[in-house]
Design goal:
The protein has 343 residues and is α/β, with parallel strands linked by helices. It has helices at 3-13, 27-35, 43-54, 70-73, 83-89, 120-130, 150-169, 188-208, 235-249, 266-279, 293-303, 310-328, and strands at residues 19-22, 63-68, 93-97, 102-104, 112-114, 134-141, 173-180, 217-218, 256-259, 286-291. It has an eight-stranded parallel β-barrel with strand order 1-2-3-6-7-8-9-10, surrounded by seven helices. A two-stranded antiparallel ribbon has the order 4-5. It starts with a helix and ends in a 15-residue tail after the last helix. Bound molecules: 1,3-dihydroxyacetonephosphate.
Length: 343
């Protein structure tokens, strides 16, 4: 392992004013996204959609890296260029989702465990050869009566730590993603408590497996009430609670924290990140974005599967990327939302 190299990649992923595009939807997830715009999920349509995102001129000002799915890492653009080369040419770092999704955790009350550790070292070596310099593994935790259980927390944290160790042995930076779903009616305080327990367990397991924190990126959700909770916390409350829990749990050796959007609206995902950085300017780690839906919802809709809409969809994507880039600098303002007008 070359920790200096890993740290350099991690620093690049969270460079000032930049964040990550999560475009690593699995085949079944991208099918859902495409069917929402009435486009069949063929290999060609998936390619055209992602090529539209990757060729957006100027995205590299705000986007440091893109998380890819296995198919995309190997895929060529319409003109025969590898999609990875398009990213590299712009100075955008290619990354790869390596987990194999979730299964029910035996012995639990329907909780989930992420799979994909078997043979991962071999896959990782190939991914490095194909150009990936960072990876992602997503653990999924659910808040409900007594959940997440200690069993689910420990099992998922240990899988994350083992994955991270395999990444580092192959000189790939692991994005460590313990996602706590927003499903349910839990309040902000519950989200805070569960996030705290989760992050403590994750960092305990990372230490147990000798993962070098200078060479990881943490990808948590924000501390936020459940989707169907009646009491909605303000932007400042979410920002302050999230920063408070991170200060308690995340060692300063970690170069950066890149949030998932988790089903928040585009605007709120930007506003929350912006408020964290504006209100807490001197944190030990960079706070930025690694959004899937909150970066893609607008360009996906504008594109609609039509080549004639590519330029307009790219403008929509750049708008969201720029606003999130500003949020990473603490310079997001709600009034900037009005600057984009669809053609
Ligand atoms: P969302 O931002 O849509 O939550 O996706 C990010 C991600 O990579 C989830 O694993």
């Amino acid at each position: 392992m070359n920790l200096k190299e890993l740290n350099k990649i991690a620093q690049g992923m969270v460079a000032p004013g930049k964040g990550i595009l999560a475009a690593d939807e699995s085949t079944s997830t991208i099918e859902k996204r495409l069917s929402s715009i009435n486009v069949p999920s063929t290999e060609e349509n998936r390619r055209d959609y992602r090529e539209m995102l990757f060729t957006a001129e100027g995205a590299e000002k705000y986007i440091s890296g893109v998380i890819l799915y296995d198919e995309t890492l190997r895929q060529k653009a319409k003109d025969g260029t590898q999609l990875v080369d398009i990213l590299n040419k712009r100075g955008i770092i290619p990354g790869i989702k390596v987990d194999k999704g979730v299964q029910t955790l035996p012995g639990s009350d329907g909780e989930k465990i992420t799979e994909g550790l078997d043979g991962l070292g071999k896959r990782m070596a190939e991914y490095h050869q194909l150009g990936a310099r960072f990876a992602k593994w997503r653990a999924v935790l659910n808040i409900a009566n007594g959940k997440p259980s200690r069993q689910a927390l420990v099992a998922n944290a240990e899988a994350l730590a083992r994955y991270a160790g395999i990444c580092q042995a192959n000189n790939i930076v692991p994005i460590v993603e313990p996602e706590i779903l927003m499903d349910g009616d839990h309040d902000l305080a519950t989200s805070f408590a569960v996030t705290e327990r989760t992050l403590h367990t994750v960092f305990e397991m990372l230490a147990l497996h000798n993962v070098q924190l200078e060479g990881i990126i943490l990808k948590p959700g924000m501390v936020i009430q459940g989707e169907s909770c009646k009491t909605v916390a303000s932007v400042h409350e979410v920002a302050d609670a999230t920063v408070q829990v991170l200060k308690r749990c995340v060692p300063s050796a970690v170069p950066g924290i890149a949030f998932l959007s988790g089903g928040q609206s585009d605007e709120l995902a930007s506003a929350h990140l912006g408020a964290m950085n504006a209100r807490h300017p001197n944190l030990p780690w960079a706070l930025t974005f690694s959004y899937g839906r909150a970066l893609q919802a607008l360009p996906l809709k504008l594109w609609g599967g039509k080549a004639a809409n590519v330029a307009n969809a790219q403008k929509g994507y750049l708008h969201r990327a720029r606003l999130n880039g500003l949020a990473a600098l603490g310079k997001y303002e709600a009034k900037l939302e009005g600057e984009f007008k669809a053609a």
